[in-house]
Amino acid sequence: MYRDRIRLPSLWNKVMSAAEAALLIEDGMTVGMSGFTRAGEAKAVPHALAERAKVTPLKISLMTGASLGNDLDKELTEAGVLARRMPFQVDSTLRKAINAGEVMFIDQHLSETVEQLRNGQLKLPDIAVIEAVAITEQGHIVPTTSVGNSASFAIFARQVIIEINLAHNPNLEGLHDIYIPTYRPTRTPIPLVKVDDRIGSPAIPIPPEKIAAIVITHQGDSPSTVAPPDSDTQAIADHLIDFFKQEVAAGRMTNKLGPLQAGIGNIANAVMCGLIDSPFEDLTMYSEVLQDSTFDLIDAGKLSFASGSSITLSGRRNADVFGNLEKYKDKLVLRPQEISNHPEVVRRLGIIGINTALEFDLYGNVNSTHICGTRMMNGIGGSGDFARNAHLAIFVTKSIAKGGAISSVVPMVSHVDHTEHDVDILVTEIGLADLRGLAPRERARVIIDNCVHPSYRQALNDYFDAACVLGGHTPHILRDALSWHLNLEETGRMLAV
Amino acid sequence: MYRDRIRLPSLWNKVMSAAEAALLIEDGMTVGMSGFTRAGEAKAVPHALAERAKVTPLKISLMTGASLGNDLDKELTEAGVLARRMPFQVDSTLRKAINAGEVMFIDQHLSETVEQLRNGQLKLPDIAVIEAVAITEQGHIVPTTSVGNSASFAIFARQVIIEINLAHNPNLEGLHDIYIPTYRPTRTPIPLVKVDDRIGSPAIPIPPEKIAAIVITHQGDSPSTVAPPDSDTQAIADHLIDFFKQEVAAGRMTNKLGPLQAGIGNIANAVMCGLIDSPFEDLTMYSEVLQDSTFDLIDAGKLSFASGSSITLSGRRNADVFGNLEKYKDKLVLRPQEISNHPEVVRRLGIIGINTALEFDLYGNVNSTHICGTRMMNGIGGSGDFARNAHLAIFVTKSIAKGGAISSVVPMVSHVDHTEHDVDILVTEIGLADLRGLAPRERARVIIDNCVHPSYRQALNDYFDAACVLGGHTPHILRDALSWHLNLEETGRMLAV
């Protein structure tokens, strides 16, 4: 029944169990696996590897596109398999191991991993494990719900294990556009000039003799965990849509806006949902992950085309979208994350990048990753790829967290992922700060006035006023700059009530 | 005698004194001036403007390419002319005014200023003042020793004042390559695929009727202030050249290396000089500023081609290079800084970017701009344009400053310009840390072991050990993280002796 999915008959004898295939992975190897934002990850082989490691310990370096679903990072962590992990994760068990210093985590811009592999700056994967809907007549790999880094992993690895997942709609074939930049010094421009351009091939081209094993699976992707908009995320969406209207009125954008990028998560999803009832038309996305809101916007006739590297849907939308893929297919493309996030393309297209901040400071520096400067949350993901080169680099967050114990706006961020040079617009449910063309002292004023929760406004005003007395282009009081974080660690609150 | 420099005779009647031309600049205007790293700045008109402001106060927003020479930023600051200044400066008087909050300074990636103008995100210049060697038969402007932002300023401004500087060799004509990206949504790839590609025109195309005034000048550029290599900068150069040899041996680069970018200043200049006696051949530069070392390398037969946005030379090399320009002209091109620093091109070409850090921390974050997190030094310049997208992002600094009172390696930088995600290699005179593919705790180990001055090594080890006990992906002790900077402010030393 799966032979129609393996269209090169000479590969039929490579079909084996996940446990057998996992034996190809040896202690000390570097392994590249498919998977991006819980979509299209290899499922059976990593599970079998974790099972095996419970009996016979082994350690690997694991590279993926981004986060895995189906609790695979948890399983692999608990089985002690992960020595090194890159470039992104979202699993709470793995996060604990990273913060304990037990797993070496390399937190990278998602566009850069395969570029560093290509240049020999990271160790190439010994083996790649890639989920596919089919293998073509040429032995090429047709990915499933994500492309991520799968193409380059398969090209760089000496051996490739393919998981043919029968749970995915075979009609996914044709959705992907695999383009790999040429090597230097003869690298040429990436010929992508419109969101819907197709510049590559529909499958990953590798010599079929590299395919060492094929495993048949039936397990679906994990559903996304996105929550419906609440009053705060709705307020953030409203502020941003008002801002877009002003940009259109000022002639800086048309009513089509620019190609939209939205990070994963509730706030970005809420902003995208907010566009359904907006006056904007003929919208496009050039993003990493396509979430429920992408398809809600298509259904509403608002979104003409969406380019991403993965599709991650809730239980609600999953069957509906993938069961009716022909309805959406001509409006979608999935690309390698190197291309979906490429600085060349992001700058050329003029992306509007909307990403979530953990916290930001008076001067517009953004922390996306580290709680109190030390403990990794998930990773920077693609936020830096987009923010640096976007037409508009927008960061969103609720103004407070933990019932008000934490202010998301602080005197000085405890870790910097996006510098003051790279941040244009900050939005909380309180309001929006437009930092473009402002000096640091001016930024502090608009941030305090527009984004800070009322319960922290006086304290931030006091800090800023006192710092200005000391002077400086970016006034700070070094003794107090991180005191809010220190209070949080010691008392559970940033400020005494 | 200057009429051969103004080849469109209808413009001859626009010649006037600098004082008359400066009257075109009105209070409250935004003014875009030529000038990049003390090369090719408009000289007479800003001087006349400062003189006028002493009598009749006025304020402007001043945009340039980068830094100005001939003490113009000092004069303009002292005359109270500068309300706002972007995107870079190096003047001590202006610096004081910035740090006092008297001049609003917008510290930008040098590739981004004209992109933000083009998109209407910054106020367009009302008037541009551009130094030129000639005006062509079409009324187009031939720049002098820098291109910087001059082309876009002239295109965007309603009126243009041209300073024809007779002190410059007219043979500079033909050196420049003016390419302006198209507007979105129809922007196309920048067609530059080799360092020596010419993709634009030799002069800045504007309608001649925009030329409102022409001023004749005779004043040279300020000489660069670069110092010859000392034992520390020589040691930094040696470490880096050893590293390049290892990269070649590992097959990650050829003996031609990649296109080199070097920031302005003594250390980068010393590194470039160090290449004269290296085994590398047929080198190229794709940089912002071409300094003495560029021409020393050409003379030594080591450097085949250099692309920059300006030429800034010492007194020693100035007459020699510009007096014998035909000797160098086929090995040089000057481009708009948007193109010399463009993320698309930097990533495509695989630049080796060498820039100076003010300080860096245990985890590889780099501060390029702020003393003790508050006081602006010069600005980020192009370092971020190159570091983010380079094949190798290298930062160099001496391990200590002020006779040992300051360590350039600190627990936590007091300001972040380049995040841990963007920094590959750190070098001091002590040694070199290769951070590629390392997790934060691993980076701390190689930085302490390789880059820290012996007098600070134990203290940093102690900090790191104690922070690791507390845990975290990026271990820190928040109470102590900025204590070295606080000590410096309060006692003049980072650590008690």
UniProtKB/TrEMBL annotation, chains A, B:
The keyword Cell division does not apply. The keyword Oxidoreductase does not apply. Residues 322-463 form the Acetyl-CoA hydrolase/transferase C-terminal domain. Keywords: Transferase. GO terms for biological process: acetate metabolic process; acetyl-CoA metabolic process. Residues 13-215 form the Acetyl-CoA hydrolase/transferase N-terminal domain. CoA binds at residues 378, 382, 402. Signal peptide: none annotated. The active site is at residue 288. GO terms for molecular function: acetate CoA-transferase activity; acetyl-CoA hydrolase activity. Belongs to the acetyl-CoA hydrolase/transferase family. PANTHER family: ACETYL-COA HYDROLASE (PTHR43609). This is Propionyl-CoA--succinate CoA transferase. It comes from Pseudomonas thivervalensis.
